[in-house]
Amino acid sequence: MKKSMIVISVAVVVSFLLLFAGQVFSAEKRFGLADIPEIANKRALTLALEAGGEEDTLLPFVRKFEEKTGIKVNTEVMLFAVMYAKENIELVGKTGAYDVVIVEASWTNEWAPYLWSLEELAKKYEPEGVEAIRRDLAYLDAGLMRMASTREGVAYGWPYECYTLMMMYRDDVFNHPQERENFRKKYGYELAPALDFSQLRDQAEFFTRKRGELLKGRPLKHDLYGLGLMAGRFPHVQDEITAILWGMGGRWARTIRDKEGNAIGFKITPRDKALLKAAFEIYVDLLQFTPPGTLNAFWDFVMAQFSAGNIIIAPTLYDSCYPWMSAWGPDVAADARIGGAPTPMKQPYCGNFHFAVARDSKNPEGAYWLSKYMGSYEVHKAWIEAGFVPSRRDVVEEPMYRDPALHETTGWIPTMLETWDYQYPFVSTYLHFNSAAFGKIYDYMTELCHNVARGALTPERGVEEWVKTFTELQTKFGKLPVLR
Amino acid sequence: MLTQGDEAKVERAPIVVGKRKTVLETLTSERYIKWFFLIPLLVVLGVFAFYPLFYCLYMSFHEAILIRAPEFIGLENYRKVLHDSLFWMSLGRTAHVVVVCVILEVALGLGIAIFLNREFRGQNTIRGLCLLPLVVSPLAMSLMWKYFLDPQMGIINLMLSWIGFPKIAFLSMEGVALYAIMFMEIWKWLPFSIFVFLAALRGMPKDAFEAANVDGASSWFTFRKLTLPMLKPFIMIIALLRLMWLIRIFDPLVGTTQAGAGTETLDWYIYRIAFIRFDIGEGATLALIALYMTIIIGVLLYRQLIKALGAAR
């Protein structure tokens, strides 16, 4: 008995030691530039990059990779607006123009036949095989990794930039005693970040005021609007409506799976149709509380309106906008402060870009190590410090970024993590990450949602159009049927 | 005219038989030299115009979506396009843009050209400034106007507020956005018509105008009976060129509405179907329909231009 107790105690202690050692080991083993082995193939690589801050932030790391490996990396910088078209034609045409492409999460299923999966590459090029890549991927958020994977769960890329929709609001206004008192009197509950779209509507109505009315006890110098939305004909309008639809439990279309879990088709249920109509109605209703110009707006408009003090709540805005929201204009109170919370109902679009290796790359080995390096801790750390949102949890969970002094730059982190965690169980059910026709569907959804927002289609008609066109596009471009 | 003696000389002139031309002489002869200059152009046209055109025609009879081999479907793409309400709406908007822009560009261009066709201090500077919009990059132009027309921060709304007007969301208001797009297009291309008309006005024969002046004709009469008829070929040239360019209107949408707020034109629709949806067959069909329309309207205008040129002579 005694002997067995000793054995058990020793086993427990050894397990703890091993666990601790494992953590230390894994922390030390975080992949970095120095871990890239000698690459035999020295053929130059071409890397697609998004124009703007991304290019500025990533280029120094591209140069480091060149120095380390001796492989020249050409970069092709493109606007997001043309990215799908440019990359799609090269990938489908098998031109080999790009070795490393940027893949928006919702394009993964569509482009999977033209990309190397991470495990295929790891088997070929990792000295430690597939285990090495699994260890590295564990640092990335699991939900984001699912988005960077096909509906069968095969991972194709290293997520690097994330854009999770969250709510940003004027924390100073929400905490102003007079405003809170007035709100409580009018609506019968406490003023706090909206948990659902009904509360959001109340708040939108409450804060929509005319010039000369009071805000925080001071007369407004201009009209004030409760909300900032992105209803222009840009992809963001469908992200906003999607956040309402998903939040209410609806889906654009459901992925139907067999007993083994294999996807066999898509179905739009009567409930989904009803919820989509409701989502359209809610969105159109909310538009009355937004500033003029909203029907041509995307995120830059909402950011500008917020920092100019023209709106109080941006209910569904990308977390990557957060650091720029506090550049307060001259008409904004000196004590203005931004607050962050999950979008109402907590199920917004959490897309991300990932770097993936094209099957037609002439140097897949070099492309693999370049893409892996772009997904490394070192690069993601630079990414967050440049004001972007990385996809690695070990980076966003670093205590240094939770410093209250950094509230206006990294204050989005707790909200984003909360959203990621809440959303994770649902990711596999979203059409975005299951359809191989989503690049085409995505563009159509933009058109549809914008047309509903501007009143060219009624919500009922919008649902009918969605069912008809989704069926056409999925049937023509997708691999799975639309089930009746 | 030859005299009899001359004819006799001609008859007696020795005939050189069997003198062969050198290769260089043959190639540089009237018969061949034209092909020497034409062939490079024909090759370029063949590769970059005729081949794509016939390939486009071929594709229009196929379901071509890149992910599988094109499949022959006969006239199905044409049937689909002709029953597509979005196609007709975008076509209607394009026609609207063409008519409004051509009329305004011709009218304003002519008016400004007449104004500039005078001697005044700083005339060269003013003329130079008039040319500026034409040299602005189209994308930069559309982004610039996006910010100028912004309802909150744009300079246009700021100026409107100075004179008591409410803020106008030019680029998001249904019905207004398309006019804002037309405005940008006119702003950019007005210098083209101004300078075509200015060149035409400066090249007009002075004697006819002096005679009219001596006869005591009014300015309006002179304009109607002399200036305008002489300008007709130039009006037709501007209308023809601008029509062909406006049917393909695309750039002003890129930086502004991205075809939102009811501004989707035919070219944007073609772009979306062909290069975002990658439905190459349907995109080819749309492109060909746009081409046929341009050719038909272009030919009609071209005939008018030829007539006008004949009348001007």
CATH superfamily of chain B: MetI-like
What gyration radius of chain B follows from the Cα positions, in whole Å? Answer: 27 Å
| Oligomeric state | heterodimer
Return the average pLDDT of chain A rounded to an integer.
92
Distinct helical segment count of chain B: 14
In the CATH hierarchy, the architecture of chain B is Orthogonal Bundle
Average pLDDT across residues of chain B?
Answer: 90
Gap between N and C termini of chain A, in Å?
65 Å
DSSP strand (E) fraction of chain A? 5-15%
Which shape of chain A, going by the Cα principal axes? globular
* Sheet with the most strands: spatial strand order of chain B: 1-2
The parts of chain A where pLDDT drops under 50 for at least 5 residues are 16-27
Question: What structural class should be given to the helix and strand makeup of chain A?
Answer: alpha+beta
Main sheet attributes: strand count, strand direction, barrel closure of chain B: 2 strands, antiparallel
Strand content of chain B: under 5%
Verbal overview:
The complex is a heterodimer of chains A (484) and B (313). By secondary structure, chain A is of the alpha+beta class. Chain A folds into two domains: 28-162 and 351-410, 3-Layer(aba) Sandwich (D-Maltodextrin-Binding Protein, domain 2), CATH 3.40.190; 164-349 and 426-477, D-Maltodextrin-Binding Protein, domain 2 (3-Layer(aba) Sandwich). Chain A is 46% helix and 14% strand. Chain A contains 20 helices and twelve strands. Chain A has helices at residues 2-28, 53-69, 80-92, 108-111, 118-125, 130-137, 142-147, 171-174, 177-187, 197-207, 235-247, 270-286, 299-307, 364-374, 377-385, 393-396, 407-410, 413-423, 438-453, 459-477, and strands at residues 45-50, 73-78, 100-104, 157-170, 214-215, 218-219, 225-227, 254-257, 263-267, 311-318, 338-341, 350-357. In chain A, strands 3, 4, 7, 10, 11 and 12 form a six-stranded mixed sheet that branches. In chain A, strands 1-2 form a two-stranded parallel sheet. Chain A has a two-stranded antiparallel sheet with strand order 5-6. In chain A, helix 2 links the parallel strand 1 (45-50) and strand 2 (73-78). In chain A, helix 19 packs antiparallel against helix 20 (459-477). By secondary structure, chain B is mainly α. Chain B has a single domain (90-312), classed as Orthogonal Bundle (MetI-like fold), CATH 1.10.3720. Chain B contains 14 helices and two strands; from the N terminus they run αααββααααααααααα. Chain B has a two-stranded antiparallel ribbon. In chain B, helix 6 (123-135) crosses helix 9 (177-202). The radius of gyration of chain B is 27 Å and the shape is flat. The two termini of chain B are 31 Å apart. At the A-B interface, helix 3, helix 13, helix 19 and helix 20 of A face helix 13 of B.
